[in-house]
Design goal:
Blueprint lengths: L30 E3 H10 L3 E9 L5 E7 L5 E7 L9 E13 L17 H11 L7 E3 H10 L2 E12 L6 E12 L5 E6 L4 E13 L1 H8 L3
Antiparallel strand pairs: 1-5, 2-3, 2-10, 3-4, 4-5, 5-7, 6-10, 7-8, 8-9, 9-10
């Protein structure tokens, strides 16, 4: 079900506040009052492009991927309640750039989503750095091919900073990939290191593009 941009659970009931142009951007790892996050997003012309609920951590919490109008910058936001319920606090799980979206009605992995990595180096990176939720980590291309074989298609890719769920460390310049199953709207958000270790950040349910995401997709982002 498509929701309008600012009637989502993360922002429901929060008045629009316009920040001065000098307002600083949100940063990975911050958890802030919902009104403050909403104001910053408005000032930066950010809109939600993908919606979901994070699962696997004991309870569902709303997750929203945002983008500016050009697909050059965005945020992964996590509320403290599921979609449809008003959040009191919003955490910034990622700041990313160079957004790419894929038409998930078409089978196959887009060429821009692959990395042609050295599998041995990727596996070593997985082991040495204990990457991923429940240490779910493997070479990037193998991970995408496995997901595609299970009916999950690449939905989103970008590059940015993420938080490794194993130890809470912040990791910069990671490839961020979202996959989704067209049959049940279940998905996963993964990150990939520069040597190609692909690790799970979180599982999701109820994934969908918003109207802003669909518009970016039509622009060829």
């Amino acid at each position: 079900m498509r929701m309008s941009p600012w009637t989502l659970g993360l922002f429901a009931g929060v008045a629009v506040v316009t920040l001065p142009a000098s307002a600083s951007a949100l940063d990975t790892g911050q958890c802030l009052p919902a009104a403050q996050v909403r104001a910053t997003l408005t000032a930066e012309s950010q809109n939600p492009i993908i919606l979901g609920n994070r699962t696997g951590y004991g309870y569902a919490t709303a997750l929203i991927f945002t983008s500016d109008t050009t697909g050059s910058r965005g945020y992964l936001l996590r509320g403290d309640k599921p979609l449809g319920q008003q959040a009191d606090t919003i955490c910034i799980d990622s700041v990313y750039r160079d957004i790419r979206l894929n038409d998930i009605t078409r089978p196959g992995i887009p060429a821009w989503a692959m990395m042609a990595v050295d599998a041995a180096r990727a596996n070593a990176d997985c082991r040495e750095n204990r990457l991923g939720y429940q240490e779910d980590c493997s070479p990037h291309d193998l991970a995408l091919e496995t997901m595609e074989g299970r009916g999950s298609r690449v939905m989103f890719a970008a590059t940015g900073e993420v938080i490794n769920p194993r130890d809470g460390s912040r990791r910069q310049n990671q490839r961020i990939t979202v996959t989704i199953s067209a049959s049940d709207q279940l998905g996963g958000v993964m990150a990939t290191t520069q040597v190609g270790a692909n690790y799970l950040l979180s599982a999701y349910s109820d994934m969908s593009y918003t109207q802003h995401g669909e518009a970016l997709l039509l622009q060829g982002r």
